[in-house]
Specification:
Distance between the termini: 45 Å
Radius of gyration: 17 Å
Structural class: mainly alpha
């Protein structure tokens, strides 16, 4: 229940809801369903369409890494294009804004603590593992073979750089 409350408050904070009165707080809170997966779905739907590929790549890397990653390791994994064997512009692709991307697009799902990046709760990983591929093909991690293949391709490309 605590994680649900923290997730809802984070979304309300990001949306700059008017929380000045008890009635406005109650009204805002009543828009959220009590199940944590409903809160995650709401957060997922709030990611702008043009930004979804970035958020999806970060989330899929973390789901299949199965452990927290350092911010630097995630930056390097994020910079690797598994479809592009060229290493010529790899340094240019390393995002100095990855932390900002995480804090703005993925704050409901991911936490950064002491330069380590992980899911804010184990239920987040489970949510993405169960997310239907038909509706959310970029975010769904239900096909574990596809996810492990993605990480394998990222790691192999990285080793070749």
């Amino acid at each position: 229940m605590f994680h649900w409350g923290a997730s809802v408050l984070e979304m309300l904070r990001k949306e700059a809801h008017d929380l000045g009165s008890k009635d406005s707080i109650t009204q805002s809170l009543n828009t959220f369903k009590p199940e944590i997966n409903s809160v995650y779905m709401e957060a997922l739907e709030r990611i702008p369409v043009l930004e979804q590929p970035k958020a999806a790549k970060i989330i899929r890397i973390l789901v299949f890494a199965k452990t927290a990653l350092s911010l630097d390791a995630l930056k390097h994994a994020f910079a690797v294009d598994p479809e592009d064997p060229s290493a010529s512009n790899f340094e240019d692709r390393i995002s100095n804004t990855l932390e900002l991307i995480i804090r703005t697009l993925c704050a409901s799902f991911i936490k950064i603590q002491e330069r380590n990046v992980d899911f804010s709760h184990q239920s987040v990983r489970e949510f993405f593992l169960q997310l239907p591929t038909a509706k959310w093909p970029d975010f769904s991690c239900s096909g574990s073979e596809t996810g492990h293949l993605l990480l394998t391709r990222i790691y192999l490309r990285y080793l070749l750089i």
